[in-house]
Structure prediction request, 191 residues.
Amino acid sequence: MLGAAMSAGAAMLYYGKRQEQAKSIASEVLDETSVATKAMLDETIVRISQEVQRIESRMGELQVAQSEKLGQLGENIRRVVTASELISRETQKLDSALRNNKQMGSWGELQLRRLVELSGMCEHVDFDVQRGTAEGRPDMAIKFANNTVVYVDAKISLNAYVEVLQRLMPNHALSMPNNSTRPLRSMLPHL
Prediction:
């Protein structure tokens, strides 16, 4: 029995050493695995960190570019608003000028002069400006063959014409010739 007890003791001792060897080997393998895993994790963390820095850098660049574009857009909008206000003021000036008979007449005279000059006529040869007649002083006297002269007055008010243009309904547009020619008809006897 003593032999069996010794053999059991020796077996326990043997198995204890083996267990310690196994733990030692497992610990070494675990340490090697941990070192390798830690190295892989560290490498992965470095790559992720670099990528995050690259993305943050790019986002910063994009934010700067976006800020610049927004600034340019704001400036362009301010320019458009300023131009729109200027156009609105000039349109109001033009509207009141066209409704003012004196200014309207000057504008009409200028347009009439441009028209006859563009058609190839020459002043004092084919037409005279502000030539007095027995009936009044028309803006232009256009000379034709056989000593025929046509007198033209460009000072006709456009108020009626503008009013018609402002209406959008078709039945008002049909009355345009009557309304726009009424001032012309009233001026004809004075020529």
Observations:
- The chain has a mean pLDDT of 76.
